[in-house]
Amino acid sequence: MLNKDHLSYKFYAPMISLVIILAVYLIYLGQLKSVKTDTLVSPLALAQNQTDSFTDINLFAKSAIVWDTNERRVIYSHNPDMVMPLASLAKIMMAVTAESLLPKNTVVTIRPEFLEEEGDNGLVANENWKLKDLLDFSLVTSSNDGARAIASVAGAINAGVSSYDVGRKDFVAEMNKKAKKIGLTSMYFTNENGLDSNESLGGAYGTVRDVAKLFDYTLRNNPQLLISTKNSSLKVTSLSNVAHKVNNTNTDIDKIPGIMGSKTGFTSLAQGNLAIIYDSSLGQPLIISVLGSTAEGRFTDVRALVSASKKYLETR
User: Fold this and answer.
1) Confidence of residue 14 (pLDDT cuts 50, 70, 90)
2) What is the pLDDT, as a whole number, of residue 17?
3) pTM
4) φ, ψ (nearest 5 deg) of residue 11
5) Residue 221: pLDDT above 60?
6) Which of 77, 149, 311, 312 is most deeply packed, by most CB within 10 A?
């Protein structure tokens, strides 16, 4: 037979348990209320903060992009799918293509006809160069002569011909094949250096979105091509013992902390183009490119986008 104490326990035990659970819940609610409201940011508010980072951007460029290389996505864009002349940004594809066709120890001889291109960066007729050194030289100082020499020799070797004119055409065809292989559907090239062919035809075309993808590809697959382009100048001696010192065509190179690579471009048709890769924080490389800006505006455009992208990352 059950005693009274036992009956009382059976009656009150569930009530006591309920009281304990309620007390714990109230304590939990009190802790939530003590959390500062400014630490609780909704996903919608976060997205708004990120968009606001670029709200006040005023660009000279007709198209622009900020590309996150880690997530492979666009952070900011302005007319990203407008096909435009690329000018010397084409030389990045020239360098990528050359490395895919020629061994690194290839010697390139500067034949007199290679020096007929617009601009003079100090190359000497019959001068011999290591391929890597001539690539660095051509990218840093945007040498049209250097790009033509590389394209002519690489194309002739690839096609198995002695004619450098034929070789040059073959090389440009390889550049176009490479663009398709990478997935740069808007890009096409009529020459290796991006110079205007005439008053109405540029040497290379593409969207700023594909420019970002090309730089992303280069960073992942040919990072050695970008190393020299992050420096303000380059000193190199050719195999013919001719010493060269050239300045980077990106005059803003020292104004962007964490710069990892850079390429400029300018022609009458293209106007001012610029693309850079910079590491905004440890392990967070961003690609910024502008097309159709002005000679000076391309630099101020990129600086503005660097500043805005840093604000964007602070909201993540």
Assistant:
1) low
2) 53
3) 0.84
4) -75, -40
5) yes
6) 149
pLDDT tens readout for residues 134-166: 999 999 999 999 999 999 999 999 999 999 999
**What are the start-end ranges of the H helices in the chain?**
4-34, 43-52, 90-101, 131-140, 144-159, 164-182, 208-221, 224-227, 297-314
Q: Is residue 53 part of a domain?
A: yes
Residue 15 lies in a domain: no
Angle made by CA atoms 272, 64, 77, in degrees to the nearest 5: 175
Strand partners, 66: 76, 288
For residue 26, the model assigns a pLDDT of 45
Do the Cβ atoms of 142 and 120 come closer than 8 Å? no
* Angstrom distance (rounded) from CA 217 to CA 222: 8
d(CA 26, CA 30) in angstroms, rounded, equals: 6
Give the number of other CB atoms < 10 A from CB of residue 312: 22
Residue 14 counted as domain residue: no
Domain with 292, as residue range(s), is 44-314
Burial of 35 (0-12, 13-18, 19+ CB in 10 A): exposed
Instruction: Compute the radius of gyration of the chain from its Cα atoms.
Output: 29
Burial bucket for residue 50 (CB in 10 Å: 0-12, 13-18, 19+): middle
What is the number of structural domains in the chain? 1
13 lies in some domain: no
Using CA atoms in the order 15, 21, 24, 26, what is the torsion angle rounded to 10 degrees?
A: -80
Backbone angles phi, psi at 145, to 5 degrees: -65, -45
Angle at which helices 131-140 and 144-159 cross, to 10°:
140
At residue 127, what is the residue type? E
The residue type at 170: D
CATH code: domain of residue 285: 3.40.710.10
Computed over every residue of the chain, the mean pLDDT equals 88
Per-residue model confidence as pLDDT tens digits over 74-133:
999 999 999 999 999 999 999 999 999 999 889 999 999 999 999 899 999 999 999 999
